């Protein structure tokens, strides 16, 4: 197995305020890793560092064998690192179809783009039925699916998601998790999933990484995390 993403002794924060302290872990190719921890533990700060929105104060992030330090935000996307930030980054004024096309614009020729959009509709049935609806008209679950579809249309190697289950009904959360696992199984997509919804995230993850106040508390197979009562009570809240 090879690591697609390698985080090594990463320190990062905001101005003079350190948040992440010496965090190290890796995500194997075609693996699903759940990034867990309470509010304020540093999950979003870590994802922002991976995206290139925050510069680490020390340590390194390697993606697909390349040190990302000198690589800009857009170049990271072009190298196959896709993000779905918290809050579902879709353009609400545009239709479902237009949002998807926007996600694939840089990757496909105008002639290829239609086929790529159709592949997303084949994966997300509800989106196909809503293709001409504007973002405003979508339910929370449909928005999350659209944000996901928009991120994966360009066929990234790694998909990074920040709290995709936030505010969604349990049935919709289950659908999203099923889609992520199916994507991994059928396309070999690698997934890093930050979640407060620990049970849902661990239900699809091979591995769980737990942050507590900016430090790494655990990096273990999902089954081991759920069976460790002390860890569950202290950091995972169930
Ligand atoms: P949540 O689930 O609430 O998003 P999180 O685990 O993602 O939590 P972060 O958002 O990374 O945690 O926050 C980690 C720490 O960094 C918190 O103490 C937070 O107050 C602080 N922080 C977050 N954003 C900023 C910012 N823009 N400027 C200064 N401090 C920040």
From TrEMBL:
List the InterPro entries hit by this protein, alphabetically. Answer: AAA+_ATPase, ABC_transporter-like_ATP-bd, ABC_transporter-like_CS, BCAA_Transport_ATP-bd_LivF, P-loop_NTPase
Q: Which GO terms describe its biological process?
A: L-amino acid transport
Name of the protein described by the UniProt record:
ABC transporter ATP-binding protein
Give the organism, scientific name. Answer: Mycetocola zhujimingii
- Annotated transmembrane regions: none
What domain of life is recorded for the organism?
Bacteria
Q: Which UniProt keywords apply?
A: Amino-acid transport, ATP-binding, Nucleotide-binding, Transport
Whether ATP-binding counts among this entry's keywords is yes
Single Gene Ontology MF annotation: ATP hydrolysis activity
Q: Where is the ABC transporter domain?
A: 5-238
Family recorded in the similarity comment: Belongs to the ABC transporter superfamily.
Q: Does the keyword Nucleotide-binding apply?
A: yes
């Amino acid at each position: 197995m090879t690591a697609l993403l390698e985080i090594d002794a990463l320190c990062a924060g905001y101005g003079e305020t350190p948040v992440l302290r010496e965090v190290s872990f890796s995500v194997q190719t075609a693996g699903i890793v759940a990034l867990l921890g309470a509010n304020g533990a540093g999950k979003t700060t870590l994802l922002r560092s991976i995206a290139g929105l925050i510069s680490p104060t020390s340590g390194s992030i390697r993606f697909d064998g390349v040190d990302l330090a000198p690589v800009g935000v857009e170049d990271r996307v072009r190298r196959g690192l896709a993000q779905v930030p918290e809050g579902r980054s879709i353009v609400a004024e545009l239709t479902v179809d237009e949002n998807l096309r926007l996600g694939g614009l840089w990757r496909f020729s105008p002639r290829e783009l239609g086929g790529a959009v159709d592949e997303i509709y084949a994966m997300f049935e509800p989106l196909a039925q809503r293709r001409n609806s504007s973002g405003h008209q979508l339910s929370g679950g449909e928005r999350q699916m659209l944000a996901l579809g928009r991120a994966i249309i360009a066929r990234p190697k790694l998909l990074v998601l920040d709290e995709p289950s936030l505010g969604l009904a349990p049935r919709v959360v289950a659908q999203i998790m099923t889609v992520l696992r199916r994507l991994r199984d059928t396309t070999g997509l690698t997934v890093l999933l930050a979640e407060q919804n620990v049970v849902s995230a661990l239900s699809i993850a091979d591995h769980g990484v737990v942050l507590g106040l900016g430090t790494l508390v655990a990096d273990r197979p999902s089954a081991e995390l759920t069976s460790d009562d002390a860890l569950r009570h202290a950091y995972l809240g169930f």
